[in-house]
Amino acid sequence: MSNFNQNNPGFSSSVDREQLDQGLRSYMLKVYNYMGLGIAFTALIVLYMSKNPELMQSIAMGPMKWVLFAGVIGLGWFSPKLIFSGNKFLAHGAFWLYAALWGAMISPMVAYYLGTNPQLIIEALSYTVVAFAGMSLFGYTTKKNLSAFGTFFTMAFIGVIAVSFLNLFFFQSGLFSAFISAGVIVLISGITAYETQMIKKMYYQGGNMGEKAIFGAFMLYGSFITLFIHILNLLGFMSSD
User: Fold this and answer.
1) Measured between alpha carbons, how far is residue 230 from residues 104, 136, 160 in Å?
2) Which stretches of the chain drop beneath a pLDDT of 50?
């Protein structure tokens, strides 16, 4: 324990392993609880939007989708400053706004499948839960340091976004979109493991665990939703054949 505590000054040498493990479990449970509530809130936003087809159409066909996209990207970029600002209300506000923006942005796609093939929604959600849970568990339990993959994941994700825009504006290919979704699924699965390990390490550094739990939920929520929409897109493409 002496070496551990020297490397993690947030904990004193008097803290025993059992207490530390209990604290970690409580902290991770809070992260997943926040994430689950965020997903539930997003589902409510999607259901509300699905009952307002004109509003949903304005998002799907008009400039509003770019406003929502910019909002999601902007909140993701500035989330560390917002959540670790020391202001509890600002931290929670950033998280719930993020969930609401995602809900509004994906509502046209989800509502389409709810109206044409709701079974795909259930299948996509089931696959997402299994994939997310498996990779998050791997990230939590593995002894391998995944931090070296952080830069690769960031650059790869930027590349995927760039390719997605090329397909949206130039190629407009359903097959290409399916290939992009398959790549994103693999990439986000790895990111989920990386994020989970990073969230776990944040606990050992000490500090404000409430803020860290919200930030952890923020990261994992984004990965879960991204994984879900690309699994849904891939299943939708496969079912159209």
Assistant:
1) 16, 18, 12
2) 1-12, 15
